[in-house]
């Protein structure tokens, strides 16, 4: 009797597994959706910083204004570095679609160099302002300026760390689907930083030099 029961149970189990095939899988668009949600949260952070600067951007407390401090030529060069880095990242994405590991790594490396150049000039600007006595504690205007521009620079810094890590992963494992997905996420992040910087360049620097 027990043998018949075991046989019947096995038959039921086989029949059930035949009708219901359960398997775990990674959702095809799950990573992209999650990363878009992260970018939206980052948008809120920058929106708050832009709003703070809009309120405090003319509160000089008797100190220097943006027209006295900002070097637009230097900022224009720095802006070109970041915009060029987005173009070179686009070339890296194209090469990854062609499955060319070497070319992909080359364009990613060039992107990283442009990102480092951008950070270098930004740090030079900060140190120059502090040396002039225009540090973040000097006025509400400068506090809002350092908070907004510094937060963007911090994002670029972490983006470069992510970029270098991704290059090591591609060199070790090649352009596997996981690495291409990571490249796509970093691409969204990098272009997002470009859009934010265009807002900073226009709203902070260009409008800051107006009387």
TrEMBL record:
GO terms for cellular component: plasma membrane. It is a multi-pass membrane protein. The chain crosses the membrane at residues 33-54, 74-92, 104-124, 144-168, 189-210. InterPro entries: Cyt_c/ubiquinol_Oxase_su3 (IPR024791), Cyt_c_oxidase-like_su3 (IPR000298), Cyt_c_oxidase_su3-like_sf (IPR035973), Cyt_c_oxidase_su3_a-hlx (IPR013833), Cyt_c_ubiqinol_oxidase_su3 (IPR014206), Ubiquinol_oxase_su3_dom (IPR033946). GO terms for molecular function: cytochrome bo3 ubiquinol oxidase activity; cytochrome-c oxidase activity. Keywords: Cell membrane, Electron transport, Membrane, Oxidoreductase, Transmembrane, Transmembrane helix, Transport. Residues 28-209 form the Heme-copper oxidase subunit III family profile domain. GO terms for biological process: aerobic electron transport chain. It holds the Pfam family COX3. It is found in: Cell membrane. It comes from the Bacteria. CDD domains: Ubiquinol_oxidase_III. NCBIfam families: CyoC (TIGR02842). Belongs to the cytochrome c oxidase subunit 3 family. Cytochrome bo(3) ubiquinol terminal oxidase is the component of the aerobic respiratory chain of E.coli that predominates when cells are grown at high aeration. Has proton pump activity across the membrane in addition to electron transfer, pumping 2 protons/electron. Heterooctamer of two A chains, two B chains, two C chains and two D chains. This is Cytochrome bo(3) ubiquinol oxidase subunit 3. It comes from Noviherbaspirillum sedimenti. The gene is cyoC.
């Amino acid at each position: 009797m027990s043998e018949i029961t075991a046989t019947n149970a096995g038959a039921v189990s086989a029949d059930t597994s035949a009708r219901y095939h359960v398997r775990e899988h990674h959702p095809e668009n799950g990573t992209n959706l999650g990363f878009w949600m992260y970018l939206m949260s980052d948008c809120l952070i920058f929106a708050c910083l832009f709003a703070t600067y809009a309120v405090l951007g003319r509160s000089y407390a008797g100190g220097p204004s943006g027209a006295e401090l900002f070097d637009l030529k230097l900022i224009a060069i720095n802006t070109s570095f970041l915009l060029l880095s987005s173009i070179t990242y686009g070339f890296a994405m194209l090469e990854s679609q062609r499955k060319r590991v070497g070319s992909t790594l080359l364009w990613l490396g060039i992107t990283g160099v442009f990102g480092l150049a951008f950070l270098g000039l930004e740090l030079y600007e900060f140190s120059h302002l502090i040396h002039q006595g225009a540090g973040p504690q000097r006025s509400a205007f400068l506090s809002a300026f350092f908070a907004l521009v510094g937060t963007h620079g911090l994002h670029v810094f972490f983006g470069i760390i992510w970029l270098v890590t991704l290059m090591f992963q591609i060199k070790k494992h090649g352009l596997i689907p996981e690495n291409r997905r990571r490249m796509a996420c970093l691409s969204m992040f990098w272009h997002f930083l470009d859009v934010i910087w265009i807002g900073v360049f226009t709203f902070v620097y260009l409008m800051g030099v107006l009387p």
